[in-house]
Amino acid sequence: RQAFTILEVQELNVNYGGIQALKNINLTIQKGEVVTLIGANGAGKTTTLRAISKIVNPKSGEIIYSGRNITRRQAHEVVKLGIAHCPEGRRVLARQTVLDNLLLGAYIRANQAEVKRDIQRQFELFPRLAQRRNQLAGTLSGGEQQMLAIARAVMSKPKLLLLDEPSLGLAPAIVREIFSIIENLRATGVTILLVEQNANLALQIADRGYVLEAGSITLTGAASELISDERVRKAYLG
Ligand code: ATP
């Protein structure tokens, strides 16, 4: 496979008022890769995803996606270009049904026949959601809501999926299920940037990783190298 850089973040700085959340972040993702960002609470992982999906505006630096500079694009434009953000805390629409949440994920798409077919595909991938298609999303279990959040993001047909803490607060069996779904997504050609507190799991699934500490990238490498790195083991693998 020909290497193709799908995302390049250059010297990115993000401030929240007086707090500098990201300091000169550089990262690169090749098409088809799963790349993970690991780091402690408050290190800036979520902020990195928010800057890429344009929920927050960087103070300086550039974000290049598929050769296009998207630094000054708006969030809805970025979705259209093929970047989907599955936020931390799931954020499904609690008072809408599973099916309506999935349809909402596809709001940018014009071809309704294709949307219908893709909803069927999501139901095959997530049988729990198929059984609950007419149930209100707010009544789903935490794991099912996480599945719905991922399925909804996939409904926008992303080329690059930003996944924030998919395992947060979930029981181990559900976490395994979610990670096998992430594997399946990768197999369909979606490139994934994965933020995880569970560094062990993340490094098992990822090709490469970046370690964020207090807003700066302090370490990067192949996941197989990071998992055996003494500093990573001490700080994140317990
Ligand atoms: P966590 O795993 O706890 O979500 P994180 O690595 O994702 O942590 P961020 O959420 O990106 O970290 O936060 C980075 C820094 O920016 C933190 O110091 C945080 O307090 C601060 N921050 C994040 N969002 C805001 C905001 N909306 N207003 C002010 N400060 C913020």
UniProtKB/TrEMBL annotation:
Record key words, sorted: Amino-acid transport, ATP-binding, Nucleotide-binding, Transport
Organism expressing this protein natively: Komarekiella delphini-convector SJRDD-AB1
UniProt key word Zinc: no
Domain ABC transporter: 7-237
A Gene Ontology biological process term: L-amino acid transport
Top-rank taxon: Bacteria
InterPro entries hit by this protein: AAA+_ATPase, ABC_branched_ATPase_LivF/BraG, ABC_transporter-like_ATP-bd, ABC_transporter-like_CS, BCAA_Transport_ATP-bd_LivF, P-loop_NTPase
CDD domains, A to Z: ABC_TM1139_LivF_branched
GO molecular function, one term: ATP hydrolysis activity
Family, similarity comment: Belongs to the ABC transporter superfamily.
Protein name: ABC transporter ATP-binding protein
